[in-house]
Amino acid sequence: MDLGSSLALIVPEIILSLTALVLLLVVAWAGDKASCAVSILSCVALGACFFLVAPAVCAGASGPDTVAFGGQFRADAFAGLAKLMIFAASGAALIVAPAFFGRTGAMRAEYPVLVLLSTLGMSIMVSAGDLVSLYVGLELQSLAAYVLAAFLRDDTRSAEAGLKYFVLGALASGILLFGMSLTYGFTGTTTFSGIRAALDGGLSNGAMFGLIFVLAGLAFKISAVPFHMWTPDVYEGAPTPVTAFFATAPKVAAIVLLTRVAFEAFGTQIGAWQQIVIFTSLASIVVGALGAIGQSNIKRFLAYSSINNVGFILVGLATGTEAGASAMMVYLAIYVVMTVGSFVAVLMLKDENGEPIEAISQMAGLSRTRPALALCLAALMFSLAGLPPLFGFWGKLVVFWAAMEAGLVALATLAIVGSVISAYYYLKIVKIMYFDEPADTIRGKSDGAHWALLAISAILMSPLAYLLTGPLGELADRAAAALFLFA
Amino acid sequence: MGGFPILSLMLLVPLVGAITCLFAGDRAARSIALAATLINLALGVVLWLNFDIGGPQWQFTERAPIFAGFSWALGIDGIALMLILLSVFLMPICILASHSIDKRVGEYMSAFLLMEVLMVGVFAAQDLFLFYIFFEGVLIPMYLIIGIWGGQNRIYAAYKFFLYTLLGSVLMLIAMLWMVNEAGTTDIPTLMAYDFPAGAQTWLWLAFFASFAVKMPMWPVHTWLPDAHVQAPTAGSVILAGVLLKMGGYGFIRFSLPMFPEASVQLMWLVFALSMAAVVITSLIALVQHDMKKLIAYSSVAHMAIVTVGLFAFNVQGLEGAMIVMLSHGLVSGALFLCVGVIYDRLHTREIDRYGGLAINMPAYAVFFLLFTMASIGLPGTSGFVGEFLSLAGIYQVSSWVAAVSTTGIILGAAYMLYLYWRIAFGVQKNADAAAMPDLSAREWLMLGPIAAAVLWMGVYPESFLAPMRQDIQALDARLARAAPEGDARLVMGDPAPVTNEAHEGAH
């Protein structure tokens, strides 16, 4: 494959990097005054990339035509579907930011640029076909994310979140890198297809250690138990728009990356990682569910909720089948919408001076003071709990379905019992908003963009969305088929 | 009715009503809710009139494969028809009974209409996952109704109701997924004829049992019911007792029995043991209650045990009896909760001792209350008698012991209901405020009158209700025939009496 066609496959990434670089220059020249224009231009760039990627996803692109740079990069439908979610989630993080930072004058023009760079890193991650491109993408994403976590420089919590995220993230990167070097040492190659071929005969001890370290490093990135401890602190400390970003886009990227590594590079040794994934999945469900019960801060609460959801997504990975991969993509898409919606709702919780409110107790009686906001948030909570007729149920149903097809009855049963525990704490939020006497501190007004995002996500989680199950399922099936074509 | 999607329309009308109520003012919301439920009642009557008795098993079918993995498939047989009628009949009455609700009326009416959508959906769904979505979805509006408009201890009751039923339901979901993988279809009529391997049936049956037994509720997983009833507003109790409990019985008759006949026989002892325990224990508990709603809630558990006993008799009498008990209990317990609501609205207490001698100052009320008390006991001429007699006649063929123990429920039922009636309606008027209560208003007449008429109709001429179900129950009986237990009665056909001409001669 010549250079020209390789370059054609990475047009979205080229657009993203050029936009980021040009905008960085603009920022250096024009300063923070340009932050609004920079945000808009970044959104436009993300939108353009979204529509560039969409046709390949709809067509189910797969096969040798989607391989660029000798196997380093893959622009297949699987990566494409993940990119659509990532671009959409990044766009949402850009839209909600100005109102949040603008209040204290902390909206600096670097924010959109950093989000763009992080998005570029994620885009490379999900398309990686080689351990090296994997690492480059992951580090690009992480470095931008560390800065974003500490974006409110004057706020000690934000600085603490950034530092924590950086130290633990660097540790995880180190573990990952160590695993990669072991894998390279025992297989003699860094390409996924090469590793796959080398491991076809059997897994040597060294390669086994490589596999485990790679999985551990990636488990940190998706905040799966037992590598989840950083999540609540970072989610609480980081500025809320950044938290919304962390909970969605990088999570999609890391999960998709993990899936590709597991199925492609280590796809001939499913037995070796299946048990680990099953354990991580169940542990995440239980720890996520139990941890959330005692939380009094809504952002910490949502952090545990995301740990819990990662557990359910990993049920799909644990199946080790194409149906499982497809179910993961469906769940991820639903998860992104639910999470964006929940964080937008959190951003809309403000007192009369516009100060953000994060204490769950302050949400008491929200249904009487702000009925529309409470209704949307209640729908999202029921949806996160996976209760029909809300659409969140569909995500859970498809992963359990895949697990049953793969014969993992015990895993599905334990996971679904875990979902009852998690239902308890989602119900708690609904109870506080609907049953308790109003605290009446939440009075701040929100702008149209927030309302629009919240309404879109609430409608997408309403029973109406079952009409989308057909197209969504088809896209996910094609994406999974593209992944398994290489496998 | 041709291809007119009347079932979808019955789902759409309350749904539109529910959304409108959210945005309407208090008075408007009441009118919208009443109008929507009355339209649905009219549609239900149309459904009944157009139901072709003796026609195809599944009628009014609609099928639209608009979802991935499952489809929008609706259709009813006689059993579902009767339960849908029960739901749409009780709904307008519930709306009328909600007169005393004065806070957040729009949301309240919206929750009730949403509940109607889901209830009709449960009985009309012909697709496994569609059924599950409706079945489980009912939890959300009921959680809100108990939690927002309930009594003192409403939050505990709401959680308990929700988590108990959810835990039961998710196990059923796992079983459903297994079945769909095995049979390759989500179509309920196809699954009803599918023969699952006997070994797997036991597990599947237990998983479904976990859900339906909680919903029903069966002893010992009934404890959410008294709490939920006591804390729920009157209309919530009516729907809970009238329709939601029937979903458990409907689940047994639609899923457990036809889909897993062998397992049903194998685990029959479990159902019988729990039912017998329920009949005796909850009846005794009901006898010592001081709270009217709690008493009726415990009596519900006892009555639902008669339903399960009838269902697992594996013969036509038992199944017909169970269905009639369900319909009758839906009407009677609903009416009893309304009767409690009537006096609760006046005195704001559910404590039995605070009343007394109401027959003197509220004669019309006392007559209605007496009628429903008698129907609950199972007096001949009321609906309760027909159902209980058939159920017990059915079970007697299988096990005379179970029949004997279950029959004590009738006696104990008479004891606690008459004792309740005596304390409330007869005796001296010991409380001045209770003695000053006015008799039924026109609105209350409108609520209780139709139910009283239906109870008498079902008691005197049950054929109207049995006829649409007969064919379906016979089909179910035929499906169960291969597994049906022999029974301990060992009925032996005697020799026919010798034909003589004496009788004729005597007449001459």
Which value, in Å, is the CA radius of gyration of chain A? Answer: 21 Å
Structural class of chain A: mainly alpha
> Secondary-structure element order of chain B, as H and E?
HHEEHHHHHHHHHHHHHHHHHHHHH
Oligomer: heterodimer
As a percent range, the share of helical residues of chain A equals over 70%
Counting DSSP E segments of at least 2 residues, the number of strands of chain B comes to 2
- How large is the radius of gyration of chain B? 23 Å
Q: Give the number of helices of chain B.
A: 23
**What's the story with the biggest beta sheet of chain B?**
2 strands, antiparallel
Low-confidence stretches of chain A: none
- Tell me, briefly, the overall form of chain A: globular
Largest sheet of chain A: 2 strands, antiparallel
The strands making up the biggest β-sheet of chain B line up spatially as 1-2
Q: Tell me the β content of chain B.
A: under 5%
The largest sheet of chain A has its strands arranged as 1-2
Number of helices of chain A: 20
Straight-line distance between termini of chain A: 20 Å
**In one word, what is the shape of chain B?**
globular
Compute the number of strand runs of chain A.
2
The largest inter-chain interface, given as chain pair and residues per side, is:
A-B, 37 and 36 residues
